[in-house]
């Protein structure tokens, strides 16, 4: 890792097809970071964008010596892009994670820094409102946080909190020890622990471009969260199977009893089918559930690198270099 410039703060920004917002974002971010008054860098991670995002990043790096650019070799998804950015962040005091789409207003960073006292390692930004998001998205998000609260046993994920946060160097170093492939960042942030504090903010609607998340990916995201942090679904299927088996045995005894007392009336076909189908369904469900975990074990055991960097251009200087 190139030395020389060691900023106090690093701002990590994963970007996927963000060409429209990037210049505005950088302008607003610079204004805020200047106000804080400590040396800083911003690490833009290009997560295999298919538009001019990378060119935009390089253009910013030309004008501004505090811009680092990490270009991933393809699209790896936000969670991994974020990890790549954290790996390349050189901030010695604090590291800030923020989305590029201006849904997390950069101005809130000033509040995060203000709230960041010696007794806490993380200050996370908690959403006040979800302007511009549909009722159903709000509802699914609400449900997700409540389910996670139930399932995550000791790991408490704060509700209505995204990845937008300020973390201490030691917290990030701990976080980066976790190299698992199925990276549910919200869960990992919570897993490392350390004292934290929340700052409320109003989440703005996306300023340009479009969200790359749809309900299918949200569902997968939720599944990721649940299976990465809980084996309860596995245990659940055990108890469900046990309960159903006990019921089936009772039913069997009842049938035998009836037959012995009243004789065989050869009328068992519908109930037989019902039982077989019911048990078959439960078995399939259980097998599917086990498959979810086996698939994750399979992926983890491959021990592949999380991402590949195509190019890394570190920030050079403390001050803005005037255009030559
Ligand atoms: N992002 C990324 N890789 C992806 C998808 C998204 O780096 O594959 C970035 C994106 O550029 C943005 C942030 O992750 O800075 C959040 O993405 P988005 O706004 O699409 O998510 P939402 O706000 O809807 O949760
Ligand atoms: Mg967004």
From TrEMBL:
Please give, as recorded in its UniProt entry, the membrane topology of this protein.
Multi-pass membrane protein
Q: Which GO terms describe its cellular component?
A: plasma membrane
Species for this entry: Acetobacter ascendens
Q: What InterPro entries does this protein map onto?
A: Glyco_trans_2-like (IPR001173), Glycosyltransferase_2 (IPR050256), Nucleotide-diphossugar_trans (IPR029044)
Thylakoid listed as a keyword? no
* Positions of transmembrane segments: 213-232, 239-263, 269-294
Family the UniProt entry places it in: Belongs to the glycosyltransferase 2 family. GtrB subfamily.
- The name this protein carries in UniProt is Glycosyl transferase family 2
Q: Which keywords does the record carry?
A: Cell membrane, Glycosyltransferase, Membrane, Transferase, Transmembrane, Transmembrane helix
Pfam families, alphabetized: Glycos_transf_2
Protein localization: Cell membrane
List, alphabetically, the CDD domains matched.
Answer: DPM1_like_bac
